[in-house]
Specification:
The complex is a heterodimer of chains A (about 130) and B (about 120).
Chain A: H1 5-12, H2 14-47, H3 55-62, H4 65-93, H5 98-121
Chain B: H1 14-41, H2 46-56, H3 59-87, H4 96-123
Helix pairs in contact in B: 1-3, 3-4
Classes of the chains: A mainly alpha (about 130), B mainly alpha (about 120).
């Protein structure tokens, strides 16, 4: 895959495209502090111990438009932050053309998981 | 260990350890997110959701949940330290090590505060 080196330099060099993703990793990270800790405390510390993880309670929450918005925002930031983190690991350790392959692979994984989340959350009626 | 000859050696100072753990916990969290999404997608059908939750209510998964809280709390608190390092000068020569240790104290406090109700639920 060494012959793909040119593609890495042209399209994947972190000196050209990394700055935006670096900043967004901080921005999404801080957003996740609020979103994830809120999600964790409400779902797992306050609601779950009193039966809030049963179907009825979860379905009632997910039928609510406000919670749909919260969950979509949350999962979008979480997937972006997670996949972007994987990209950073890939850029640190993979210097051959496999870098293009793995980044493409995780792009697809990320998009598919976002679609799965959207299909679960948006049309949900309970 | 003749077969493994690293080309670089590392000093295991505070910041490096924090960075390694941040990376490891980050990868664990994205793997968890993938699994979590699969479980939640069973909500399309009440039976499949109740079945999935039946498995996850077992003590082993309850204990793993405490592990998840450990990993998530570490990544969140250390991530905030990284932001402070980047934007608020939290990694100057004079304050760097102190800040890493302050972060460890905050992390332990937050983890214990959350783990107590979780473990009480496990016992009760």
């Amino acid at each position: 895959m060494e012959y793909m080196r040119g593609y890495i330099d042209r399209y994947q060099g972190s000196s050209k495209s990394g700055e935006f993703n670096w900043l967004m990793q901080r921005v999404s990270g801080v957003a996740l502090l609020v979103l994830l800790l809120g999600h964790f405390f409400i779902q797992h510390f306050i609601s779950a111990p009193v039966g809030g993880a049963g179907y009825a309670a979860v379905a009632a929450r997910l039928s609510d438009l406000g919670w749909k918005l919260f969950d979509m925002t949350f999962v979008t930031f979480a997937l972006y932050h997670g996949i972007n983190g994987i990209f950073m690991v890939i850029e640190d350790y993979i210097y051959s053309g496999w870098r293009v392959f793995w980044k493409g692979f995780f792009w697809i994984v990320g998009v598919l998981y976002w679609v799965l989340a959207a299909l679960t959350i948006i049309p949900f009626k309970g | 260990m003749n077969w493994y000859q690293p080309s670089a050696s590392y000093k295991w100072h505070e910041g490096f350890v924090a960075w390694v753990l941040h990376r490891v916990t980050g990868l664990l969290l994205i793997l968890y997110l993938f699994a979590h999404e699969w479980v939640i997608s069973t909500l399309q059908n009440p039976q499949s959701y109740t079945q999935a939750m039946g498995v996850l209510e077992s003590p082993i998964f309850k204990l793993l949940e405490v592990g998840l809280w450990l990993v998530a709390a570490y990544h969140a608190v250390n991530g905030l330290r990284v932001v402070l390092v980047n934007f608020a000068g939290a990694a100057e020569r004079s304050n760097y090590k102190t800040n890493v240790w302050i972060f460890w104290v905050i992390f332990v406090l937050i983890f214990v505060a959350g783990a107590i109700p979780m473990l009480m639920g496990l016992a009760g």
